[in-house]
Design a protein that fits this description.
alpha/beta, 15 helices, disordered N terminus, binds 3'-phosphate-adenosine-5'-phosphate sulfate, EC 2.8.2.-, NST/OST, Sulfotransferase, disulfide bond
């Protein structure tokens, strides 16, 4: 696998201005990290100023973009109140923005109304029969389950010893927590079986063919690692791949605890988790955390040492993927080209549209760096997760302190699907691809619009590369996939 390209040269030293005070727990973040954060903030301000001066201020409202919608959950009493994150980059020469108004055309975009959480449920674990990998016995794809890579299939597995974990009768805490999962968190896939599989997975029950009635082992723990984003980045592929690891237990559905369900409390959250044995890592993925203003602070209050994983993808492709998902549910929405602009003649991008806003990674990351040092965050390339899943999984396993168990031998490239799929585990279980809602064909987008979006994102991408020390090379890609 090709190594990451060298990070860009460090930014110039900042002028002697006061840096924001560190939050509790930020002591882990050394002076260089704080300096970098400060420089990033400053650079973002300058970038934003430039955009404003060029006439884009009406479109790009960072302070608004990073706010959680009204109706956000209350803080839990036990956690000491962490400091408020510092204000977003100042809009020099511009008055303070008014309270965040919802985009006037949010309904026509297929977005939820303003009182709703801003992002759609990302869970889409529909399954499709996989193409057989070379040498695979015929029929190996039959009986695929509904969650992610079809790990709900029968047939047992190398992990059955610890995966035969349907909810024991009387496991009421879990049952209660699961029944409390709001309907909107059901997978996007349409069948009740899909939903059931997702809920089973969230239950910590056997989503890989464990024998019914076999008792669950271990205890439910709050997660030690989270996949916090980004929506349409490849988070499902990553979660399903890491779940192959015997030392990982993960929730199949997205709990949305730190954005939508926070008021339910930590015990609810714990009960959503599967049972784990000592030494196993408990995980969940909810991609909307990355763009939820309160998420870093809340997660820090729960576990300041938690490991965070962000799967990032070219923000232009990500936006189109996001739009494609919405379009699949609401075919009547305007075209991508229409939604992407505030004023197409003037070339003003509408950064208040969530499909665009989510891709301004540097701004969202800035919020996380108020609470977590960079060393606690792993950035996975969504592009490399497709072309070299084993390589990205090696980094993920290293980051989680796990033995490299998930390797090349767990993947094969499915030509029909056009994506890597999970090969059978060592125990003869069936190969699995992600469902139809993963790896959709995108609508054709006007190349000029793509070009404009690339120009729009470029400074933010550069800043993101500087902040993370990784060059994701999105500027080298041309157009959509
Ligand atoms: N192995 C494999 N199979 C299928 N799809 C894969 C895979 N690896 C990454 N991807 C890319 O994942 C994109 C969906 O991202 P997410 O899983 O994060 O979406 S979601 O936010 O949970 O809805 C999805 O986006 P679209 O291609 O736009 O559908 C894929 O490009």
């Amino acid at each position: 696998m090709a190594p990451w390209p060298a990070p860009p040269p460090p930014p110039p030293p900042p002028p002697p201005l006061a840096a924001p005070p560190p939050p509790p727990g930020a002591s882990a973040k050394g002076p260089p990290a704080r300096k970098l954060l400060f420089m990033c903030t400053l650079s973002l301000s300058v970038t934003y100023l430039c955009y404003s001066l060029l006439g884009g201020s009406g479109s790009l409202q960072f302070p608004l973009a990073l706010q959680e919608p009204p109706g956000a959950a209350a803080e839990p009493p036990p956690s000491p109140p962490p400091p408020s994150p510092p204000p977003p980059p100042a809009r020099l020469g511009a008055p303070s923005p008014p309270p965040a108004p919802p985009p006037p055309d949010s309904a026509s975009r297929g977005e939820p109304p303003p009182e709703q959480p801003p992002e759609e449920p990302a869970e889409e674990p529909a399954e499709e029969p996989p193409e057989q990998p070379a040498g695979e016995p015929a029929g190996a794809g039959a009986g695929a389950g509904a969650d992610g890579w079809g790990l709900a299939s029968g047939g047992g597995g190398a992990r059955d010893a610890w995966l035969r974990t349907p909810p024991a009768a009387g496991d009421t805490a879990t049952a209660t927590a699961q029944s409390a999962l709001p309907e909107r968190e059901a997978p996007e896939s349409s069948t009740a079986a899909d939903e059931l599989a997702g809920r089973r997975a969230a239950n910590g029950s056997s989503d890989r063919g464990g024998a019914p009635g076999t008792p669950d082992y271990g205890e439910r723990k709050l997660p030690q690692a989270l996949i916090v984003g980004v929506k349409k980045g490849g988070t499902r592929a990553l979660l399903e791949a890491i779940r192959v690891h015997p030392d990982v237990r993960a929730v199949g559905v997205e709990p949305h605890f730190f954005d939508r369900n926070y008021e339910k409390g930590l015990e609810w959250y714990r009960n959503v988790m599967p049972k784990t044995l000592d030494g196993q890592v408990t995980m969940e993925k909810t991609p909307s955390y990355f763009v939820t203003n309160e998420a870093p602070q809340r997660i820090h209050a729960m576990a300041k040492d938690i490991k965070l994983i962000v799967v990032v993808r070219n923000p232009v492709t990500r936006a189109i993927s996001d739009y494609t998902q919405t379009l699949s549910k609401k075919p009547e929405i305007p075209t991508f080209e229409v939604l992407a602009f505030k004023n197409r003649t003037l070339g003003l991008i509408d950064a208040s549209w969530s499909a665009i806003r989510i891709g301004i990674y540097a701004l969202h990351l800035e919020n996380w760096l108020q609470y977590f040092p960079l060393s606690q965050i792993l950035f996975v390339s969504g592009e490399r997760l497709i072309v070299d899943p084993a390589g990205e999984m090696a980094k993920v396993q290293d980051f989680l302190g796990l033995k490299r168990v998930v390797t090349e031998k767990h993947f094969y490239f499915n030509k029909t699907k056009g994506f890597p799929c999970l090969k059978k585990p060592e125990d003869s279980s069936a190969p699995r691809c992600l469902g139809k809602s993963k790896g959709r064909t995108h609508p054709r987008i006007d190349p000029d619009v793509i070009h404009r979006l690339q120009k729009f994102y470029k400074p933010f991408n550069m800043m993101f590369y500087q902040m993370t020390g990784q060059d994701f090379q999105w500027e080298r890609e041309e157009g959509d996939k």
